[in-house]
Design a protein that fits this description.
single chain; Rossmann fold; GMP Synthetase, Chain A, domain 3; five-stranded mixed β-sheet; globular
């Protein structure tokens, strides 16, 4: 590691470089509400981080203290990260959608000495988790609190000149996993882990200093932090922040991004929004007409605010083959990525012109990958975590003796080295016939339906599996219309037959159940990164299963 580490500039060094090299150029464009925006030059952004670092030093915290950041994405999130590093400490991001109990757990487990409270939608449910004796600092966009404010602090302190010198092997951040299978684990990442990943991705995708990105996926998640925060630090490009869901289209059009990241649920919502304006059947017909199809493609991409995008990425969860193909028809090549908190999302990525639908791409530079005898994907690279914070036993369980990370994903590799994920090892369940079923590939087929937003395939200890279906927002609103509901049910019956025809007999779904309840982060059905909590979803409907199986109907409305 030492020879590699000595050649890599660390994130803080890159920020200090751009502070001088691009002093007067805009780094952040931050919406402030009511259509107003604040612009931060590199000099201002790094300068404010230096001032906050002076304040942190004045608190005389123990060396390398853990300091929490609880906020949605904003300019101050990244400035805080830099300030914490400048003062010689470790940043601990918290998802801005956590409940009070999880906030309390992370702050206690990480032994946080200070907390930055920023832009939040539901502070009321979180603040119960913040200990009364924990010192907190608020941002300009924070909910109303009695905490000291960022602006007051930076106004009173001069910039820290002698910023802490951080070494590659040193702990930089503790990223807590989203907790889809129990208590969140604290993934320890070094400055070297972050630097190696950043250099690898900007080189692999040929990212330049002229890019523009919109930051809206949680910076507390490694996917956004890896490409957006680290990408901007390593190439010095302009970052725009989103204000809210309601202003998302305006935010996109302001940014005119050249690079755009989204999770599968966002791409599905975009598609649903388009079909709302133009029904799929009509669009399919128009797309078959020469010249007209070109106008349609251009109009749709411009309507999404993605007309300047060089490449668009999808990650965090699988995207169905059909939706991927649909975007490709529009001329937008979605590049999938694959990674984990445990390797700072640095593992696999689709390369432009080398994509294959259903595959998450090739190993990034420096990544070794292998498939174990059990079919598990195992990866090893300089981005692999230092371990789980205060949990050496769990660290040992996750690593092989020769240093490979056990991902928990099943997969295969094709002749070009492209990886296909075929399900989670722990998600595979056994029917009462003793046959194993991998739910993820089946779910991907079902979510291609334009009126289906999410699917959970289950059926452990029953003769055949079933699928729980959450409708799209549009379909949920229209299902009260009897004609629409009949048409929708007929399409589900056809889809059930079509999906079953592609499966082995033991995987055949006995029925679809259209659920009434929305699965959301708020009701604990989804993780903060919008992944399904299978155990929570399955438990919610367990008492109804005997009745549903007994009905012998292809489609059941809850």
């Amino acid at each position: 590691m030492n020879s590699q580490a000595s050649k890599l500039a660390l994130p803080l060094e890159k920020a200090l470089h751009w502070e001088k090299a691009k002093a007067g150029e805009i780094y952040f464009t931050q919406p402030m509400g009511n259509g107003q925006v604040a612009e931060f030059t590199w000099q201002r952004a790094v300068g404010e981080a230096r001032r906050m670092a002076s304040y942190l030093k004045s608190l005389d915290l123990p060396p390398k203290s853990n300091i929490g950041i609880l906020s949605k994405n904003c300019a101050h999130w990244i400035m805080t990260d830099l300030a914490i590093w400048m003062a010689g400490h470790v940043s601990v991001p918290l998802y801005p959608t956590l409940n009070g109990e999880t906030v309390a757990y992370i702050l206690e487990h990480s032994e946080a000495k200070l907390l930055f409270v920023g832009k939040l939608d539901d502070w009321e449910t979180m603040k119960s988790g913040v200990p009364a004796d924990l010192k907190c600092i608020s941002y300009p966009l924070s909910p109303k609190t009695d905490y000291e404010t960022w602006d007051d602090i930076v106004a009173k302190h001069s910039p820290l000149q002698d910023v802490a010198v951080r070494v590659p092997e040193e702990l930089a951040t503790i990223v807590y996993t989203s907790g889809s299978t129990g208590k969140p684990k604290g993934v320890m990442l070094s400055f070297f882990n972050m630097a190696y990943s950043a250099e690898g991705v900007v080189d692999a995708l040929n990212i330049s200093t002229d890019e523009r990105m919109l930051s809206y996926l949680p910076l507390s998640h490694v996917f956004e932090r890896f490409v957006v925060e680290m990408g901007s630090l390593y190439r010095g490009f302009h970052l725009f922040f989103a204000e809210s869901l309601d202003t998302f289209v305006q935010d996109l059009n302001r940014a005119q991004p050249t690079l755009f990241l989204a999770v599968p649920r966002i791409w599905t919502k975009f598609q649903s929004g388009i079909f709302k304006k133009m029904p799929k059947e009509k669009m399919d017909k128009l797309m078959r007409i020469p010249l007209v199809n070109r106008l349609i493609k251009k109009k749709v991409i411009k309507g999404l605010g993605l007309q300047n995008v060089k490449f668009a990425g999808s990650g965090s969860a699988p995207l169905s083959d059909e939706i991927m193909g649909w975007y490709r028809q529009l001329g937008l090549e979605l590049l999938e990525g694959y990674g984990m908190s445990e390797n700072f999302a640095y593992s696999h990525m689709t390369k432009p012109g080398r994509s294959r639908i259903g595959y998450v791409g090739e190993a990034l530079p420096g990544v070794e990958v292998r498939i174990s005898e059990e079919g598990e994907v195992q990866v090893k690279s300089p981005a692999t975590m230092m371990g789980y914070y205060k949990e050496p036993e769990k660290t040992a369980e996750t690593m092989t003796e020769d240093g490979f990370l056990k991902t928990g994903d099943k997969g295969t590799i094709d002749e070009m080295g492209r990886l296909k994920l075929t399900g989670r090892i722990k998600e595979i369940f056994k029917t009462s016939k003793g046959k194993y079923v991998a739910p993820a590939p089946i779910e991907n087929r079902i979510t291609a339906h334009p009126h289906i937003e999410m699917v959970c395939v289950a059926g452990s200890e029953y003769p055949q599996p079933h699928a729980l279906i959450m409708l799209s927002e549009d379909a949920q609103a229209r299902k009260v219309d009897e004609a629409f509901r009949k048409e929708l049910e007929a399409s589900f019956v056809s889809l059930l037959k079509e999906v079953n025809a592609s499966l082995d007999p033991h995987e055949h779904l006995q029925f679809f159940t259209v659920v009434e309840q929305e699965w959301s982060i708020e009701n604990n059905f989804l993780t903060p990164t919008m992944k399904m909590k299978r155990n929570v979803i399955e438990d919610a409907y367990k008492a109804m299963l005997d009745d549903w199986y007994g009905r012998r109907q292809p489609v059941i409305w809850q």
